Structure formats: structure tokens, C-alpha cells
UniProtKB/TrEMBL annotation:
Lineage, highest ranks first: Archaea, Methanobacteriati, Methanobacteriota, Stenosarchaea group, Halobacteria
MF-aspect GO terms: indole-3-glycerol-phosphate synthase activity; phosphoribosylanthranilate isomerase activity
Pathway recorded for this protein: Amino-acid biosynthesis; L-tryptophan biosynthesis; L-tryptophan from chorismate: step 4/5
Highest rank taxon of the organism: Archaea
Similarity-based family: Belongs to the TrpC family.
Annotated gene: trpC
Catalytic reactions on record: 1-(2-carboxyphenylamino)-1-deoxy-D-ribulose 5-phosphate + H(+) = (1S,2R)-1-C-(indol-3-yl)glycerol 3-phosphate + CO2 + H2O
Protein name: Indole-3-glycerol phosphate synthase
Species the sequence originates in: Halogeometricum borinquense
EC number annotated for this UniProt entry: 4.1.1.48
Region (Disordered): 1-30
Domain Indole-3-glycerol phosphate synthase intervals: 11-246
Keyword Ribonucleoprotein: no
Length: 260
């Protein structure tokens, strides 16, 4: 355990403990990735907000579990205009599986992010995906090696940060896709100011995501105004009609133009 882990919420501690036990793949995967920056550019060219819609059957902060077929949910999100999908593969706390991800990636043609707590190199080989999440807070000195290992396999690593210090580590590790998580993994509290405070320090050539806590069109516009290239939205899309919800967030920009 390193110092920054002492303060974690008990739920996060237990997620991390489980992640450290999970087996990886037998041999390195070789991924032909669908370009995420290109998908973001195409959505922007069409005048919409790039939304990464997240298939998250449940979570430590969500009441209940959604039992619909994940592939159906994924198709609906794409029909609603999702630029990319995020798929939880964490089984114990988020109801995910590598099998769901495999099936979803086969069923859609947008880039797919593997959302899990990858803590070692062989876990990268559990399943192919276009993007893979690496959480700076949990990787300490291994971050740089994992970014390199992910790129070698053809993945586009998305490095998740929560403050300027982690941003510096992500950049030093060679990350070119970075997500600022508005949720503090120590307390699980969400604050959109987190993104606003970190974003100004991110170089322009980085593809920048705002993660967590976007619940309304107004939040979406607020994150865009603060410099988000794309928004990663889970709970607010999973709650109800996922196609209509995805469409509402990706078209949130149009309303601003009309009303301002
Ligand atoms: O449901 P929300 O608040 O829209 O958040 C989505 C996503 O950012 C969140 O699920 C998340 C961000 N980082 C993570 C790391 C692991 C698991 C999940 C996450």
C-alpha cells in the first residue's frame, strides 16, 4: 500500500483489493484500435458534443442493478449518437465482464473503452478494446510502464487523473488521452470544479475527457466550456432510456446556441 491509498473510501479499497487478485491473459494481445481522436473530431464536425456513453450495470454509488442485455444497451447508445462507449469489465462491484465487452465491441463500430482497475501488465491481455483505462492514483511508479505496455499492444490508453500532480505524472508517462475524474476516489464525492481546476493545465494536443457527475445538459455545457473534448457519462445515461439520454447530452450544444 502506498501513502495515497491510506485515505481511500472502504468501497474503493475493496475494489482495488479484488483487482489485484484478478488473473490476466496468457499472451499479449495485438489490438487494431478504432481511433478515438478521429471519432471525437467527426462528432465535433457534425456540431455535436462528443459523448462516451458508459455501460455500467451497477456501481458502489448507484441504487439497484440494470439487467438488460449490455449489447442492446450499447446499440441504443450508438443509435443515440455516442461517439464511443465505455464498458465496465469489473465483475464484483460494477456488474461488468470481459465477455460483455467482447460482444459489445463486435456489435458496434465506435471505439470501446475498457473500464476496469488494471493494476499490472498481464491484465491488459484479458480482452481487446480500443481504449484502456489506467488510473494514475492506483499505479504510482508503474504508470509509465503500463502506458508503454498498453501502447505496444495497440491500445489507446486513457489515463485518469484527479489533480494537477497526477496530471503531471500522466504527461510524463506519455499519455495523450487524459480523463479528469470529478469523483474523488478517496471519498466518492463528486465536484465538477475538479475538472475546471485541472483542465487549464492540460496541453492542447491532449484529447481531454471530463469524467463523472455530468447529470444535465447544463453540466455538459459547463464541462465543454471548461475545455472538455469529450464527456464520459454513466449513471445519467443508464437511468432510463439510454438512447434518448445519449441523444440529449450529445445535442446539449444546440440549445445553448438557440438560447444565448
Ligand atoms: O456515472 P457517472 O457519474 O456519469 O460516471 C461515469 C464514470 O466517470 C465513472 O463510472 C468512473 C470514472 N472513473 C472510474 C473508474 C472505474 C470505474 C468507474 C469510473
Amino acid at each position: 500500500m502506498n501513502a495515497s491509498e491510506d485515505s481511500l473510501a472502504p468501497e474503493v479499497r475493496s475494489i482495488l483489493d479484488a483487482a489485484r487478485e484478478r488473473p490476466g491473459g496468457d499472451e499479449p494481445v495485438a489490438v487494431t484500435a478504432r481511433s478515438f481522436p478521429d471519432a471525437v473530431a467527426a462528432t465535433e464536425a457534425a456540431g455535436r458534443i462528443p459523448v462516451v456513453a458508459e455501460v455500467k450495470p451497477t456501481s458502489p454509488t448507484t441504487a439497484g442493478e440494470r439487467t438488460d442485455d449490455p449489447v442492446e444497451l450499447a446499440r441504443e447508445m450508438v443509435a443515440g449518437g455516442a461517439t464511443a462507449l465505455s464498458v465496465l469489465t469489473e465483475p464484483d462491484h460494477f456488474g461488468g465482464s470481459v465477455e460483455s465487452l467482447r460482444r459489445i465491441r463486435e456489435a458496434v463500430d465506435v471505439p470501446v473503452l475498457r473500464k476496469d482497475f488494471v493494476v499490472n501488465e498481464s491484465q491488459l491481455d484479458a480482452v481487446e478494446s480500443d481504449l484502456v483505462l489506467l488510473i494514475a492514483r492506483f499505479l504510482g511508479d508503474d504508470l509509465s510502464d503500463l502506458v508503454t505496455a498498453a501502447k505496444e499492444r495497440g491500445f489507446q490508453p486513457l489515463v485518469e487523473v484527479h489533480d494537477r500532480d497526477e496530471l503531471g505524472r500522466a504527461l510524463d508517462a506519455g499519455a495523450d488521452i487524459i480523463g479528469v475524474n470529478n469523483r474523488d476516489l478517496a471519498t466518492l464525492a463528486v465536484d465538477l470544479e475538479t475538472f475546471e481546476s485541472v483542465a487549464p493545465h492540460v496541453p492542447d494536443d491532449v484529447t481531454l475527457l471530463a469524467e463523472s457527475g455530468v447529470t444535465s445538459a447544463e453540466d455538459a455545457r459547463r464541462m465543454r466550456a471548461a475545455g472538455a473534448d469529450a464527456l464520459l457519462i454513466g449513471t445519467a445515461i443508464m437511468d432510463g432510456d439510454v438512447r434518448a439520454n445519449t441523444d440529449r447530452f450529445s445535442n446539449a450544444t444546440a440549445k445553448t446556441e438557440l438560447s444565448e
